[in-house]
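Q: What does the predicted 3D structure of Pre-16S rRNA-processing nuclease YqgF look like?
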Amino acid sequence: MTLSAFSPTQPVILGFDPGKDKCGLAVMGLDRQLYYHQVVASADAIAIINTLRQQFPISMLVMGNQTTAKRWKQKLQQELAEALNIVLVDERYSTLEARDRYWQMYPPQGLIKLLPHGMRQPPRPIDDIVAILLIERYLNRLTESVNG
């Protein structure tokens, strides 16, 4: 679990990349400060989201709009302790992008550095990094609409 040393005072966004077996979670401020990210078992996701809401001033949840989105959105609306605004964002190519971001966040060491970039596979699930990217896509969309 990656938790930042301090809790934000401004509202933050929860990124959620749901899956059948595991889910990615991330908490990021509007200033793009990353406070938390972790891959969790799907069965534990709702309980962990409820816990995160006690630790952080989460104002909304952002999740991808693909495969399991409808089912998870219903599940969240039914099972969360308190209602939460859920926004769907385009998640196309997010897994490929997350693989690149993983290596930016955790530069390759040792022999992995010798592998061509496209052949490097992260050594762990990267659903949490997808959740980070979903928040960033949402924030980018906001700034585009303000500036455009």
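A (community wiki): The structure tokens above were generated from the sequence. The beta strands are 2-3, 12-17, 22-29, 34-41, 58-64, 86-89. The chain has a mean pLDDT of 91.
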